[in-house]
């Protein structure tokens, strides 16, 4: 419990610190209005935005970003107004429907108060409809304005990327840098003095105690906090999780989170030590707060790299990497994390000191060279590790296609950045370096989450796991269904992660979180097919209703078939028919509930019904006929589960095992199953042997010689049939002398058993016993008469000495 308590304490402090840091660095975005505004106010705001966007020459990236946020907020306000006015319009329409239409000419006049009320309601509804229409227009124009502003930002960003400066290999580049160096040094010196002044205030007597406490806590987290947290998480996973892939994926996730939380929280403690009472001021404090956020990002990069490589513990490694390659790549995650922090610091500092264009270009070029150099070194080490395996005689593992594409993209990116730096396109090189760094983080995160979700689903729905056994016991789910569920859920989650990752990887012109969230929100926007609305939220709710409804239906059917119905006097066939009919009814109810959750109006799917009616009239006629026949079989029950039926026309005879929606399963005597359409059981002649509880009749014909004592034989045969345990006393067994045929007496032995299914086995037993008893009583059975054909010898030919002729073969007797 102490380990869990420490983990919970550290996580709660870290989450709280992260939220505070994000709150301090969050941009000033307009909060959504508490109540919907009026249409006139929305039109006024829209006109102001249009005037601001019209002056594009004076707009920078910051101004365009502010206009984007304002246009998005205006669209949200317009949508809120539409949402608030629509129910009022529906209520007025309902009142008008209650009043009904105005009477025509020639009809009795209605009371004046009713006419005035209808007139007022019609006027109010017309005003509301006009406001709703105007609000929808404002929402549409705000969305168009949002797209226009995004296009302007894209053009501005592309213009910056396409700007070309002097090449770092030229003298003009360094000359411009040296000319502006004094001003840049002065700006940096002023920032340094302001920072030192702000930091010195943290050493004042009122701030020393929290300064030392936060500093010691940060040092403790830097030194032992990560190891203690990872050790606690390791003990938690080994004690609570089953051995397998899930434990490995969970450890990788915990290592990533542990590194992020410890180093990020330590950076926030350092920030608190310096700015406990707001001593850093607005400018330096804002810079420090933004660096705390970037410290969290850098810590996440380092933790993700450590978790994926796991150079010290190969058994924890998620990707299929060799130990040599993991050791070679081990220093790169922390180096890239420091580069990410340095990138953010350089961007903020250059803006803070108003650095010259040459200094900004030089810093961006140096940072792009640093990041690209690290990526190039990592690629070179990968190649060396691969060549080392080949030299040792070990074939390297086959790379997946996506890994090869990523490596090729990294090579292309490195070459592009180097060429851009040499030719003077430093802004593009800087953007490309940041994009490669961001892409690596996104790919690593998605890879880890995909493996984690796949392992979670495989573990939870494994037929041998504790959860899988509980699902089988509680809901009667077969092991095959559990495995299929795991595969489907894993595939859906991976596809969802991929859909989220692709916009992040392909985000143009450095799109910020707001725009990415807006793009992601478009996936959940309302769509329509004709008049049928497609709402993603309703689809999710419908899936929940479908899964819950099917689960409840299975539970009820299982309870009926295993608990309630077996305790009644109903026969098994009737019990199965009741369960099947209940399944059909519950299925229809679940389907209706799903349609209601989707808010599907029957008028919206009339064209679907029309198309289906045409299909039913041609291709689905037989299916519908069999379906109706199945319902008739379950209702009238001319045949039921357990009956022994015979279809002379189809040559099928056996026991009915199951009556499905479309066909009936009949098991024949050789244990094979015949699928018979339900319509054949309704329209054709069917012999139901067991419907009225018919008995099975065993009949044996025995030929015996004419010299047989008939009475003695009759007594022996009756004794054999009476001694068998399966033969019935009523009707009694009988032995009849049927006829005399071919010198033999034909005895017909008849006995009855409880079921026609027992006839074959009882008949075999009786024959064995009869032959033994007849032989013991010296009553032989008749043998068939043999027919002997003799061929006469050929006559000798004239003039030939028969005695001198060689003897020919004697023809065999037949």
From TrEMBL:
It comes from the Bacteria. Residues 39-84 form a coiled coil. Gene3D superfamilies: 1.10.287.1260, 2.30.30.60, 3.30.70.100. Residues 623-690 form the Mechanosensitive ion channel MscS domain. One of its GO terms (cellular component) is plasma membrane. GO terms for molecular function: mechanosensitive monoatomic ion channel activity. The chain crosses the membrane at residues 210-229, 250-274, 286-309, 335-355, 361-380, 401-431, 486-506, 539-556, 577-598, 604-624. InterPro entries: DUF3772, LSM_dom_sf, MscS-like_channel, MscS_beta-dom_sf, MscS_channel_2nd, MscS_channel_C_sf, MscS_channel_TM-2. Residues 1-23 form the signal peptide. Residues 98-127, 788-814 are annotated as: Disordered. It is a multi-pass membrane protein. Keywords: Cell membrane, Coiled coil, Membrane, Signal, Transmembrane, Transmembrane helix. It is found in: Cell membrane. Pfam families: DUF3772 (PF12607), MS_channel_2nd (PF00924). Residues 132-194 form the DUF3772 domain. Belongs to the MscS (TC 1.A.23) family. This is Small-conductance mechanosensitive channel.
